[in-house]
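$ run holo --ligand "coenzyme A" --emit tokens
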Amino acid sequence: MKYFNPRDLAGHVDVLLSQRGEAITLRFAEVADAEALQGYFRGLSASSRYNRLMGAASELPAGQLDRFVHIGADDGFSLVATTSHDGVETIIGEARYALDDETNSIQIGMSVDDTMQGHGIGTALLGNLTCRAAELGADRVSGDTLRSNDAMLALARKVGFSFTPTPGDWRQVRFEKKIVPAARAIPYAGQRPAAMIADANCL
Ligand SMILES: CC(C)(COP(=O)(O)OP(=O)(O)OC[C@H]1O[C@@H](n2cnc3c(N)ncnc32)[C@H](O)[C@@H]1OP(=O)(O)O)[C@@H](O)C(=O)NCCC(=O)NCCS
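-- output --
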């Protein structure tokens, strides 16, 4: 995959639009976000947290939180989706992607605040992650989710991911998608600070 300097990535900001027209800023998580990100995870419903962390937990485990706020830790990157009202920024979603050089693929996981689910934000996030994967030169995007996670399965199906059993864990399903060459021609919004993406145009 392409070489990149994590410091260059830190300044990249995308703006997505929810179906209700709300502007959602998507930027890399940084150390200063640790408290707010943990607050976001604590505020998720028990079932959303269970689906995201694939097990019962009241918060993001400390080691994971530490990795989430350090760009490039374990070849992974975390994005926070935020809204801003009266100058106050609130985390309303997050996504993690990890680069796997051996398979030239990117693995993803994500969540959206319960009060914001169902407004197209998950679809926009997945589109943005796919654009980022294309920009990094990956051939494939994939993720594992619980078999019981109807929302994630429906979202992945809707945007054309296919499914296979997750090796080694019967509770999970792997969703994956080849990145079409055309996606590479679509400018990855992260190259342009605060670029607008009206829809998930890499899906
Ligand atoms: C999965 C998740 C990210 C989807 O985000 P979202 O913003 O609600 O998704 P969208 O609004 O873009 O919905 C996209 C599609 O998903 C499907 N979907 C969404 N919520 C659903 C639900 N509760 N049940 C069944 N299908 C659902 C629908 O097909 C929907 O398309 P439509 O609106 O055209 O009908 C969100 O439900 C979530 O954060 N869940 C908890 C964490 C999690 O499960 N993460 C996945 C682990 S990888």
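-- notes --
Confidence is low (pLDDT under 50) at residues 184-200.
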